[in-house]
Each structure stands twice: as C-alpha cells, then as structure tokens.
Specification:
23% strand; seven-stranded antiparallel beta sheet; 3 domains; Rossmann fold; Pnp Oxidase, Chain A; binds adenosine-5'-diphosphate; 15 helices; 488 residues; binds magnesium ion; alpha/beta
Length: 488
Amino acid sequence: MLVKLYKKEGNIVQILSFPNETVEKGDYLLIEDPNGRKKLIIQVIDVQFANIPGILEELLRSLPDGGEVLQGENFDPLEIAPHITYIQDARLLRCKIRATMENGSLRPSSSWLPSRPRSTIKKLPIPALLKLAKIDGKLPIILGSTKDSTVLTIDASSLDGRLNIITGKKETGKSHLSKLLMLNLVRYGAAVVVFDLNGEYVSLGMTSDEKRNAYYNKIHVLTPSQNFKVTLKQLHLHVLLSILIHALHLPGTSTREFRRIWQSLKEKGSLNLYELGEAIRNWSCNHHVRDALFSRYYALVNSRFFTDNLAEAMLLKESLLKAKKEGGAIIINLRNTSSIDRQIVVEYVLGKLVELLTSWKLKAIFLFAEEAHLYLRETYWDDIVTRMRHFGIFTTFVTNQPDTIRENIYRQADNIFLLNFTNEHDLEAVSRAAKVDAETVKSIAKDLPPHQCLVLGKVVKDFPIVVQVKALDIKTMGETRLFFRDTN
Ligand SMILES: Nc1ncnc2c1ncn2[C@@H]1O[C@H](COP(=O)(O)OP(=O)(O)O)[C@@H](O)[C@H]1O
Ligand SMILES: [Mg+2]
C-alpha cells in the first residue's frame, strides 16, 4: 500500500496516501513495526488534500532520487512532472489511534511511536478488526452491514445493564434501529417497555404485508385511556403522590391533606374516583387547599386513565409478568396523549416498574424512551442512570434533539448509536460523551447518509464502526403525515 506515516501528535497520526489508494473516513489501518511485533490500530477520521508545501517536500525526498530534480532548470529529463501531479493529488489522512497490539493482545494505549521510514501501513479490513476486537457474541444481533459488506453482529449482552443513546436528525432511521434492537432483545427472552411517543411501535407484530410475524404474541400495546386504565385501588399511595407532585405540581400543604383523605378512604374501603371527589368536597380544610386538590382531581378524571370499573382496568403487571416469562414488549402508546396525561402515565409506569423490580417480581427491564424530554420529569434523568439502573431498568434514549439529554447521561452512556447530524450545535451536544472523541463524532457523523449509523461504545469494544442498518420486515406506522401523499 502506498502510504507513509507523516506525523504523530498524541493519539492523532497523520498519514500520506497516494491517489490510487481508496481510503475513506471510518476505515481502519494497521501500522506495523518492521519486526511485526507491535502494531497500531488507527482509524481514518478525516481525509484532506496533502497540499501543504512541507508535506510535498517530504514526499519528494522520499522519492528514489530524493527530489534532486527540483533544484534543476525548467526542463524535465527525469519526467517528474507526472509525479508532481500525482503528488499534488496525495491525500493527508487524519487518523485516531484506537489500540496498540502487542503479542496478539490489544491495549488502548497510544504511547508507542512506530518508525517512520520502516513501519508499514496497510488497510485493516473490518472482518479482521471484528476478529481482533472479538466483536461477536453468544447472543448475536445483526445490526447491518459495513462498507465492505461485512455483516456487523453485536452481542445482546453488551446492551444488558447498559445505558444507550440513539440520536441523529429526523428521518435518519433512529426509531428503526431502536425497533431492531428491542425486537432482538425480545427474541432472546427479555422484557422490554417502550415509551412510544408517535404510536409507531404498535404494529411490530405485523409484517409489511400485514401478516402476523413471530413477535405477534409478544407485542402488547397499551394505549392509555383506551385499553390501559387503572383503578385507584390498584395504586400505591406513593405512586399517586408522585403523579400529583411531579406531573400535576400539587403544593406541599395540599399534598399532606391529600394523604389524610386517601388514608380515610382506604380505611373505609372506598378508594375510588367518585368517593375521592366527594371526600375532597366535604373535607374540612382551607379553601385554597380544596381548590388545589379539586383541580388535580379533575386532571386525573379528565385523563381517563383512571377508572372505577375493575373490568376495564388493564393490569400492567400482568403484561409485564407475561413478558418476563417468555420475552415480550409492552408498548406504551403515547400518541394523541396530551402532555399532562403523558406525564401521568409515565409516572405511573415507572413507579410500577420500580415496585415490581424492587420486590424481585421482575429481574430487569429494557426501557426504550423516544424523545424522553417530553414526558420524563427532571429528577428522573439522574435517577435513570443511578437508582433505576441499580434496580434493573436499562434505558435506551432515542432523540433527534441531542441537547435535551443531560450531559451526565452522555458521560455515563455505554453505547451511542449516532446517525447523521449536520448542525454543529447538535454535534457539539453528542461530542460531550466520554465514549467518543469530539473529532470523530463531528467528522464522521456529518457525512453519514440516512440509515447509516456510527456505532460507539461497548457493543463495538470501543472501535467506532459505521454500519448500514439492516431493513426490517415490519409494518411501519411512523410515516410523516403529508398533504399531497395520496393526491398523485
Ligand atoms: N436501515 C433501514 N433500512 C430500511 N429502511 C429504513 C431504515 N432505517 C429507517 N428506514 C425507514 O426510513 C424512514 C425513517 O426512519 P425512522 O426510523 O422513522 O427515522 P427517525 O426515527 O430517525 O425519524 C422509515 O420509513 C423507516 O422505515
Ligand atoms: Mg423516530
């Protein structure tokens, strides 16, 4: 391969490459010591023209005649002119050191400096990289194919116990990738909960031509106020209090009164919506408190998420326990649910999950949350990476607004699936992740075509890899509603 090591600064290596070499961003190269004992695995993160005078000089010196002719007159006895054109076309590859290999084992260090004239540089094909880095697994999930048509397979257990982020601009394939991951987790028997903001996960049990697929019986769609309602009796007071405080912003004094009302209803065995309304009406308290309680009471009633009819009540617990037994996904369909109602439902679901996990009725849950900033309350963000993760809630955030995800979530994320972003501000937000360096993110993500994803983190053993995400034969619902769609 006609390439030459030019410069090394920290973990950046610059390489001169000649035009007949096709090297692209994202490709991996291997720099080998002459004795073959030590190797550097580097990744191309940018390709530029090598038109800096110093570099041309460097190149000419490395020609067999040492560039002597340059000092000559304006004639060309050695026919160097074609070489010069050739050299002017040379590329400068900016590469990041990803690992050092010594005696067959990989280390993330970059302190070794390979010899400039004697080391050889060659392409490291993706299959060889996958083998070296041992990116495979006992529970394979095929993500898609890499540029050289190699299948990229990750291990489902590299998602287990992990915090993941899928981000990229609209229509690049985030939800698609999220569906691919969750269906595979279900296939391996995991219990999955999806906060489905746009109602696009609801037909995952159907193929594109509307036949039932292998997941049909494992996809449980819960639409709040339709087939998903709860009775007050089923609720733990603390879950309802979370709803009142966090979703409905009930002040402290009123919350204390609410507790008393709840206790008295509970003692009488009359915990239902009707009795709750009556109790608030007749409770002897300050009228501000009563007004505050009434406005929240009506918010609860109007959400139509609560019912007094046990037959109507959908037991989230039962679907979860079913999912636990044979693997399955609970799709919380939040489409057409107002912002307040969404928060009520999410508060309830998370409360229920924590309850089932802490009592060990559930072992662990994979949670997929689309645009979580639209319904996840402030304090949950930290909770999800710490307390909830400890209980066994392993979250994947999916968003096209990367700045809505907190910095500490990026820092703690184990895996990032990055689709195209062109906007600097968005790229800046993603670059904060500890798993990646800003330069790689900015340079590679900008050029990604739709459906291609830069995979970062544990699933790829920290070797960033670009993959064309596999298609899925499922009925899609997430299509953008268009005015002109059916008019032609
Ligand atoms: N890897 C893929 N292969 C085939 N079609 C895809 C792929 N990724 C996404 N799509 C399709 O492209 C469209 C947009 O994808 P979607 O996942 O909804 O984007 P996003 O969630 O980023 O807005 C959908 O119709 C989806 O089915
Ligand atoms: Mg989407």
